[in-house]
Amino acid sequence: MRNAGFVLILGLGLMLAPGVQGADNPAPPASPVKLIFIHHSCGENWLTDENGALGLALMENNYFVSDTNYDWGPDNVGYTTDIGHWWRWFRSPDSPTFLEALFAESGQNSWYTRMEDDPGGGNRIVMFKSCFPNSALQGDPDDPVPAIEDNPLKGMDAWSEYHTVANAKGIYIDLLEYFKTRQDKLFISVTAPPLYDAAYSSNARAFNQWLVNDWLVGYPYANVAVYDFYNVMTTNGGTSDTNDLGRETGNHHRWWNGGLQHKTDGDNDGNPNVSEYPTDPWGDDHPTRAGNLKATGEFPQVLNVFYNRWKGTTERSHGRPVAPPN
């Protein structure tokens, strides 16, 4: 595993996603693209105009945004967004029912500005993010990863005794078995926000480094990507209400100097793995507006790169998806 000081810059066509040729492109889609975001409270804050304004920024980048929230969907599946729950969404016997509703959803379950006109069709991009309790991963990052049939985290929440780094890796590895069958969809895994409490912070860092650097090694398609929201929240501009957006220093996941940059060595304090944007360090780990605005300033161009990589591969295959689009 690469260390926490690793800085990744993707440019000039180097280290691109499988099957992608040429330099990365941070330009927005030429026509509206439907995107749905699975989230809870942190995602809602990030979307909302008065907080992170992500919905508005995505609209300005030509995405028609819908979202799920706590009480959304068949069997209220929207309540379940922890790491163990992703197996339920994408791999359980109930997955076809959940996903049919997800791909067809065009409504809003949070308050944010979006395009007035629905471009029609199903959602083409699925963003999914767990909330900050998921950063309390237990165990040893080097523990062996169980086969999915032996993984006790399947369907469980972040308070489970089985919420370990190894089991979380196993869940994500198994998700690829579904994602590879839906190359007509782009899946964006957004890492969970960090905690201010340092108890499990090194495990959270190890897991998210694995997601960014190792999870997709050997995966042959460009329809899955990771945005490291966790890392973006680990440095600020001096206080939790001041961000370091646009600075060379700090931790970032952004388009920078002509390439994608995943910079994780920018924090020189005593613990580089904790939240630097807690709303209240003594009990509320929701990122502040400043933290959410930093992520909004960095994410859209990264999403555009992921979209253009995926769009390039689907165009070269003459648009023939593995499974029928919804």
Observed structural traits:
single chain; 326 residues; five-stranded parallel β-sheet; disordered N terminus
Structure commentary:
This protein has 326 residues and is α/β, with parallel strands linked by helices. The protein has one domain. Helix content is 28%, strand content 14%. The chain is built from 8 helices and 10 strands.
End-to-end span in angstroms?
37 Å
Q: What's the number of helices?
A: 8
Oligomeric state: single chain
What is the C-alpha radius of gyration, as a whole number of Å? 18 Å
The overall average pLDDT, rounded, is: 92
Tell me the strand percentage band.
Answer: 5-15%
Tell how many strands the DSSP assignment holds: 10
Helix content: 25-40%
Order of helices and strands: EEHHEHHEHEHEHEEEEH
Question: What profile does the largest beta sheet have?
Answer: 5 strands, parallel
* Total of domains: 1
* Class by alpha and beta content: alpha/beta
Residue ranges: pLDDT <50 for 5 or more in a row?
1-21, 318-326
**Shape, please?**
globular
What topology, given as strand order, has the largest sheet? Answer: 3-2-4-5-6
